[in-house]
Design brief:
- By secondary structure, the chain is mainly beta.
- The protein has one domain.
- The chain is 5% helix and 51% strand.
- The protein has 1 helix and 6 strands; from the N terminus they run E-E-E-E-E-E-H.
- The protein has one helix at residues 71-74; strands spanning 5-7, 14-16, 19-22, 28-43, 46-56, 62-63.
- A 4-stranded antiparallel beta sheet has the order 3-4-5-6, with no helix packed on it. It has a two-stranded antiparallel ribbon with strand order 1-2.
- The longest helix has 4 residues, at 71-74.
- The chain starts with a strand and ends with a helix.
- The structure holds zinc ion.
- Residues 8, 10-11, 13, 34, 36-37, 52 line the site of zinc ion (ZN).
């Protein structure tokens, strides 16, 4: 599989996949992480700043499985 890059939805930096993840029973999706961008995520009841991590689905749409409603990805 050729190395595919996608732009970070926040800063536009080109990122290469750091791994894959399976969402429920769906296909494996590539996972991207931008170390330049920090986002606040609720991890085990605690708000933490973590590097922006997201998946890209079959339609090329970026989303964060940990925060699917994040306006960064929904555009709202
Ligand atoms: Zn970024």
């Amino acid at each position: 599989m050729p190395a595919k890059t996608v732009p970070c939805p926040k800063c536009g930096r080109q990122l290469t996949a750091s791994g894959v993840v399976s969402i429920e029973d769906g296909p494996e999706l590539p996972v991207y992480q931008c170390d330049e961008c920090l986002v606040t995520r609720n991890a085990f009841g605690t708000l933490m700043e973590v590097a922006l991590t997201f998946c890209v689905d079959e339609n090329g749409r970026a989303f964060d499985p940990a925060a699917p409603d994040d306006p960064l990805f929904t555009g709202n």
